[in-house]
UniProtKB/TrEMBL annotation:
Keywords: DNA-binding, Transcription, Transcription regulation
Protein name (database record): AraC family transcriptional regulator
Transcription regulation recorded as keyword: yes
Cited Pfam families: AraC_binding, HTH_18
């Protein structure tokens, strides 16, 4: 772990961009699972380029699964925690707020094209003339485009037994175990888990799991993953079953989301029936 990366661990991080630059990128390669406690940065941050493992970020109470071909934008000052599985490699690009004042003010997914990736990595160089560096930074920032996928709310339960189940399903939405099967691992009876899940989230276990799967699907679809692949990754045996549930939650088909990701969508206020 680099010295810059270590500074991500503190509750309020110091400046990580050296003058005269207005952005910088840090590479993180993990041989084992790593978790960064909740913290803030004085800079904007883009977490991107995930490969080789799970990368989960909780920002302002929303859990994001960062896909390989997109990045999560974290505005300066936003409280967030990060969890990465073993073998994960990703990048953190920091942007000086005073140099990029017009940037997004809420967390969200941004597209990271092959060209943007190369420009950001190109700026690892420390021997670039200041004028060349400034031009490259402007190009990089101009290429940043939000995907604006709808954030499906997934509240987490507080009971330790239900939280154990919830965290496992966020990490792997395709897990098909029933609540009775989870009770054998998490402890407690099915009736108890059902009660504490509903009390902690305002949803039944079945409703909550649908929300988790749809939210995970949104990140994959925004990254251009085919619907047939997404349906399997989030736990549906057939694409048709996935499409039906996705449409009930978001009001749109997965295909429409892939064609027009910037239009956004809004989940119905009423909860799904189990």
């Amino acid at each position: 772990m680099t010295a810059v990366a270590e500074r991500m661990l503190v509750p309020v991080g110091p400046r990580v961009i050296d003058d005269p630059y207005s952005m910088t990128t840090v590479t993180l390669k993990l041989s084992h699972q790593r978790q960064w406690a909740a913290h803030r940065h004085p800079e904007h941050e883009l977490i991107w380029g995930n490969s080789g493992g799970m990368l989960t970020v909780v920002a302002d109470g929303i859990t994001w699964e960062v896909p390989p071909s997109a990045g999560l934008w974290l505005p300066a000052g936003v409280l967030h925690s990060v969890k990465a599985g073993p073998g994960t490699e990703f990048f953190c690009t920091y942007f000086r707020p005073e140099a990029h004042a017009a940037s997004a003010t809420v967390p969200g997914l941004f597209g990271v094209s092959a060209l943007l990736r190369e420009v950001l990595l190109h700026m690892h160089r420390r021997n670039m003339p200041d004028e060349a560096r400034s031009r490259a930074e402007r190009v990089a920032f101009d290429m940043l485009q939000p995907l604006e996928v709808a954030a499906v709310e997934v509240p987490m339960p507080t009971d330790p037994r239900a939280l154990f189940v919830a965290q496992a399903l966020v990490a792997n939405p395709a897990d098909q175990r029933s609540l009775s099967e989870w009770a054998l691992t998490a402890g407690g009876s099915v009736r108890t888990l059902t009660r504490v899940f509903t009390q902690g989230t305002g949803m039944t276990f079945a409703q909550w799991r649908i929300q988790v799967r749809v939210r995970a699907a949104l990140t994959y679809l925004a990254a251009g993953v085919p619907v047939s692949v997404v349906s399997r990754r989030v736990g549906y045996e057939t694409p048709s079953a996935f499409v039906a549930v996705f449409r009930r939650v978001t009001g749109r088909t997965p295909g429409a989301m892939m064609k027009h990701p910037n239009r956004g969508s809004h989940a119905p206020q009423e909860l799904l029936r189990a």
